[in-house]
Specification:
Structural class: alpha/beta
Distance between the termini: 43 Å
Mean pLDDT: 97
CATH superfamily of one domain: 2-enoyl-CoA Hydratase, Chain A, domain 1
Shape: globular
Number of helices: 9
Order of helices and strands: EEHEEHEEHEEHHEHEHHH
Strand content: 15-25%
Largest sheet: 6 strands, mixed
CATH class of one domain: Alpha Beta
Number of strands: 10
Strand order of the largest sheet: 1-2-3-5-7-10
Oligomer: single chain
């Protein structure tokens, strides 16, 4: 069963995370299918831009704790979004947690609903937002990121815009996206690719410098005793043992 939906309208390919039963958690299969779909879009001259969206009330709940992707596979798909020679636009009408915020940061433009909420929940289950920091650190406000990385607090779309996670927040996301997609349709494809390359150079430098270390950190933390306790507590809907 496929977990990535695909449609196309006037040169815009829409890829939908389509596993609402798991709140579109980043499973090994979802990451693999997303990578395959992005690769096809990158090679297709008829695709002017990609919209990354979702079904259900959650854009992405983060890593699938029952079937997580290998850290290097998540790094690869984040880099793939950043390197794709077509703009990638996130359309967010639901909530975003943990690894889902890495997807959001990898996109070139992100528009979210004013009803959406966001949280870096990693520290609450005994891990760290390691590999998703690759696109996040170069693109977001460091003070905001420090607060929400360290506390796991939930924040709203207005704060997500201020922090640099969203380009814009709107009551009607599709209405807000319409002029953006129209602009992309009017842009020359080679000019779009070169302009995106200018914009992503610093992000890709972070991948080149830090990907190996952050992948190792993620693997180490996910294998730790605290992570086992945190994930068990999450699945059992209780506080982990360290909560005071």
């Amino acid at each position: 069963m496929t977990v990535i939906g695909r449609t196309r309208t006037r040169g815009i390919e829409t890829l939908s995370l389509d596993s609402p039963d798991t709140r579109n958690a980043l499973s090994a299969s979802l990451v693999r299918e997303l990578a395959d779909a992005l690769a096809e879009c990158g090679k297709d001259a008829d695709v002017r831009a990609v919209v990354l969206t979702h079904t259900g009330n959650t854009f992405c709940a983060g890593a699938d704790l029952r079937d997580p992707p290998p850290p290097d596979a998540l790094v690869a798909v984040l880099r793939q979004i950043v390197e794709l020679p077509k703009p990638v636009v996130a359309r967010v009408t639901g909530h975003v947690r943990a690894g889902g915020l890495g997807l959001l940061a990898a996109c070139d433009i992100a528009v979210g609903s004013t009803s959406a909420t966001f949280a870096f929940t990693e520290v609450r289950i005994g891990v760290a937002p390691a590999v998703i920091s690759l696109p996040l650190l170069p693109r977001t406000d460091p003070r905001a990121l420090a607060r929400y990385y360290l506390t796991g607090e939930r924040f709203d779309a207005t704060e997500a815009v201020r922090a640099g996670l969203l380009t814009a927040a709107a009551g009607d996301v599709d209405e807000a996206l319409a002029p953006i997609l129209d602009g992309l349709r009017r842009a020359a494809p080679e000019a779009l690719a070169e302009t995106k390359r200018l914009l992503t150079a610093r992000v890709l430098e972070t991948f080149d410098r830090d990907a190996a270390d952050l992948t190792a950190l993620s693997a180490r933390l996910f294998g730790s005793a605290q992570a086992r306790e945190g994930m068990t507590a999450f699945l059992e809907r209780r506080d982990p043992a360290w909560v005071v």
